[in-house]
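Hi support team,

I submitted a single chain yesterday and got back a structure, but I'm not sure I'm reading the token output correctly. Could someone confirm the output below corresponds to the sequence I sent? I've pasted both exactly as they appear in my results page.

Thanks,
R.
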Amino acid sequence: MVEKTIAGKSINVNEEGYLIDPSQWTKEIAIEMAKEEGLELSDKHFEILEYLREKTAAGEALSIRKVGKSGIADIKQLYQLFPGGPLKLSSKYAGISKPTSCV
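Hi R., thanks for writing in. Yes, this is the structure output for that exact sequence:
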């Protein structure tokens, strides 16, 4: 566990940069985390992040296929929005744990 200051807040992240406590998440934190990795978040990104947070809070397992069927963005769009690992990156920016389906 590492303590890090993002968007003016002190938060705890694991060795991969995922928030330890999802309740610390804010849109500002997501924006800063994405910026550190060269990504600028849009409204469409936030629709996906909110969807992931809702499904995780409901105890549902996440998968790229499930997000692709959500009606928010298809799988191709997910790869365009979050290049290099759509579910892995979107989960990180959503302030939730890395899904077990991600390596």
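A quick pointer for reading it: Residues 64 and 87 are 6 Å apart (CA to CA). Let us know if anything else looks off.

Best,
Support desk
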